[in-house]
Amino acid sequence: MAITSGKNTPQLNLGVLGRAKELKKRIWFVLGALIVYRIGTYVPLPGIDSRALNQLFSQHSGGIMDIFNMFSGGALGRMTIFALNVMPYITVSIVMQLLTVMSPALSAIKKEGERGRQKINQYTRYGTVLMASFQGMGIAVFLESSNASSGGGLVLDPGLFFRISTISTLVGGTMFLMWLGEQITARGIGNGISLIIFAGIVAGLPSALASTFELGRTGALSTVVILLIVALAIGLIFFIVFMELSQRRIVVQYPKRQMGNKMFGGESTHMPLKLNMSGVIPPIFASSLLLFPATLAGFSAGEGPAWLETLTIYLGHGKPLYIATYVLLIVFFCFFYTKNVFNPTETADNLKKNGGFVPGIRPGKHTADYIDRILTRITVIGAAYIAFVCVVPEILISQYAVPFYLGGTSLLIVVNVTMDTMTQVQSHLLAHQYEGLLKKAKLGGRRK
After folding, report:
1. How many whole angstroms separate alpha carbon 90 and alpha carbon 347?
2. Backbone angles phi, psi at 272, to 5 degrees
3. Element (H, E) at 251
4. Are 415 and 308 within 8 A, CB to CB?
5. How many CA atoms within 13 Å lie on the side-chain side of 184?
6. Which helix (H) or strand (E) holds 38?
7. How far is Cα 88 from Cα 75, in angstroms, rounded to an integer?
8. 4-441: which CATH topology?
9. What is the dihedral of CA 419, 277, 236, 209, to 10 degrees?
10. CA within 13 Å, CB half, 180
11. Rounded to whole angstroms, what are the CA distances from 239 to 287, 379, 412, 418?
């Protein structure tokens, strides 16, 4: 099975960027939206003492809450209005995608086209409100229980009003971020939800680098270890870029057709299949599901069933059960998402309708089976690649205390979102160049 790296990206003159007014407007809109998001991560929830909160999170550092705090751009550690970030929306999106496969009613709605997609999105929004309310209640109860165990001072005025205000504020923050992500997708560049998560991760990078260099200055880390960490990060970035650009190309042949005295067709092309079709969806979904037991434990405030407390301990960051479950969820979502976005039977039917065929393979069902077999093989490689990238830094962080800020999931998200955004920028620049060429051609035609 030959896999090639898609390096045939068009070379563009970046000087065109200065003349592409529409693209500049989109970029400025994205920057403005992300600035609004970053400002919101510093607006605290009402009724909480920030000093006592810092002490509480320093006691609980090193656990799974650190991952949630990183995805939220530090908003959870500061307990701000965006503490939940877009995680409730992502969790509900997972459930809705699973239900559209298992439920015939939702599957029928999905097949209605644009109207069906809008209905599914509306159900996802309703579910996000419920999930954010549930998680907000868990945070409020956790803060009140921590307030009681620490002898007071964390929550200034605990009670029903504090819980209601906390839940409504966190739900409002999540819904605003969901709306902001949709606006970025429609009026900016790239996927809005992914860019919000990207901004949250990258925002903590300068402080992480400063703390790492401080450890080197004080002698806690040797220069060799710091250089090895930098080399590992650069090596993983190059590996991710190579794997994301890799694709399996299936040769497609079109027969010759005679129209009058001329022959048309007969050309040979290829159908590219990306090695990682699911992108960053599997690690994000897996991380969201692994955070769910911790949310339940916070909701119970230490008074829940014993099995829940035990499960939360064993699913702690870097524990063997956590890593094993993480790998299994990544593999599952790789196959699940790939099957949802690419239908071999539909692709084979479209080839047959257009007269295309794979050399040596009969059209129809045999072509569909051939494409499905190749898709399964490359998905195995893609799932192994994502699991490797996500798990190796986790093991280094937990087992060997390596201060590697960008874990596997976050590093994969940062690189993928960067590549996706640059691809869309290139597409807008190409469209602007083609528009310029068309205008010149029309002006030349008029002069003649």
Report:
1. 29
2. -80, 135
3. strand 246-253
4. no
5. 28
6. helix 21-40
7. 15
8. Preprotein translocase SecY subunit (1.10.3370)
9. 50
10. 24
11. 22, 17, 10, 15
* Each residue's pLDDT expressed in tens, for the chain with a length of 448 residues: 556 655 544 444 555 555 567 888 888 999 999 999 999 999 988 888 777 777 777 666 555 566 677 777 788 888 899 998 988 898 888 788 878 877 888 888 887 878 888 888 899 999 999 999 988 888 888 888 776 555 556 788 888 898 999 999 999 999 999 999 999 998 988 888 889 988 888 887 787 777 777 877 887 777 887 888 888 888 888 998 899 888 888 888 877 665 666 655 567 788 888 888 888 788 877 877 777 676 666 555 556 667 666 777 777 667 788 888 889 999 998 998 888 778 888 888 888 887 788 888 888 888 889 999 999 999 999 999 999 988 887 777 776 666 555 667 778 888 888 888 888 888 877 776 666 656 656 555 555 5
**Residue 83, both tokens:** 């503490």
Q: What are phi and psi of 269, to 5 degrees?
A: -130, -170
| SS3 labels along 319-372 | CHHHHHHHHHHHHHHHHHHHHHHCCHHHHHHHHHHCCCECCCCCCCHHHHHHHH
CB 23 within 8 A of CB 432: yes
Neighbours of 50 (CB within 10 A): 11
Euclidean distance between the first and the last CA atom of the chain, given in angstroms as a whole number: 54
* CA within 13 Å, CB half, 68: 30
- Judge whether 154 and 53 are in contact, CB under 8 Å: yes
3-state DSSP helix/strand/coil % of the chain, to nearest 5: 70, 5, 20
The letter for the amino acid at 58 is S
What does DSSP assign to residue 271?
Answer: E
Q: Which two tokens stand for residue 264?
A: 């048309």
Whether residue 168 contacts residue 394, with contact meaning beta carbons closer than 8 Å, is answered with: no
CA 181, CA 196: separation in Å to the nearest integer?
7
